[in-house]
Amino acid sequence: EKNGFDHFMLKEIFEQPKALEKTMAGRVDKETNEVDFPELAWTEEQVAKWDKVHIVACGTAYHAGLLGKAAIEELTRTPVDVEVASEFRYRNPIVNENTLVIAVSQSGETADTLAALRQSKELGAKTLSITNVVGSSISREADNVILTLAGPEIAVASTKAYTTQVLSFYLLGIYLAQKKKQITPEQNAQYMAALQEVPEQMEEILFHNDEIKEYGESIKDAKSVFFLGRGIDTAVALEGSLKLKEISYIHSEAYAAGELKHGTLALIEEGTPIISLLTQEKLYDKMLGNIKEVSARGANVLGVTMRGNVKVTQYVDETCFIPETYSLFTPLLSVLPLQLISYYTSLALGNDVDKPRNLAKSVTVE
Ligand code: F6R
């Protein structure tokens, strides 16, 4: 059932290109190249009514939600809040008939996410769920459902569910922009062409993973690993850090690189591994400035960046290049090396990769 892979996690990492293809198929009109969600069938009037979007989720799904915010705000200029469900539900959130609440959950059974969804319904919001499990509580109770077609995810550490959630947000953002007439047919076609290329670009990363493996093994004795990014790279840094903590049990933190000077720099020592993401061209120089700061304190820096950005090699100790795409879509590619790093680090430590200590696949207690 592991299809020749040693662990479910590795199998699921490698299933991502197919999972993305499946999630995309049926949601793209082959003739117009527009996004179509037959399962939503929202009218223009309905979409125009929402003046606020709230995304609620836990863990990795919350990290996908951060990218959902970036996509929906960028494409539709509608304000979006993202919050972990266990905080949202206890703080009297401002939600009403003009709010769209999106609950994101792989299992569709996470207790806090379900409670946040129920509360939003009571407050009169329209609710949408993005889930991977047909018939799950969250999928049944939301007004509308976008199913991610990742297939069953067995490993506790979520991988293909995350990338299909992120893709769903991109498609949703484009769909909403279409309904609000905020996207030109040309831009639409360009975005869709770029998204359709992603599965193949993922394959490229997956089949050249020997260096990533070596890197993962090289950090196994680290006391602490830091992930740095700016803009949407910060959201990906959070996900990379969670994945590493979860299965390698190494302490790790993710930081918006601009925050380094406000405390974190004190923790950087000789040899501290730093995984830095540089996928946002307009932020390259700022990131390189931050990399200089940590290198000056002896950190060992890996840069994950787009293939064209060779300049970065002068500033970092090691580089991991990924294929180029629109800056909004880079997380679908940049997260892959991070997933693989956590896998190989955990493996090198002899941990139970698929069933890390203290964690359950589906968290049905509050
Ligand atoms: C991390 C992980 C967890 C889940 C979280 C939410 O790899 O798997 O952080 O993402 O427990 O679970 P779902 O998406 O099922 O609501």
UniProtKB/TrEMBL annotation:
Location of the protein in the cell: Cytoplasm
Reaction catalysed by this enzyme: D-fructose 6-phosphate + L-glutamine = D-glucosamine 6-phosphate + L-glutamate
Top-level enzyme category: transferase
This protein's record includes keyword Cytoplasm: yes
Superkingdom of the organism of origin: Bacteria
EC number in record: 2.6.1.16
Domain SIS: 43-182, 215-356
Protein keywords: Aminotransferase, Cytoplasm, Glutamine amidotransferase, Repeat, Transferase
Record organism: Pontibacillus salipaludis
Record note on quaternary structure: Homodimer.
List of catalytic residues: 361
Protein's name in the database: Glutamine--fructose-6-phosphate aminotransferase [isomerizing]
Chief localization: cytoplasm
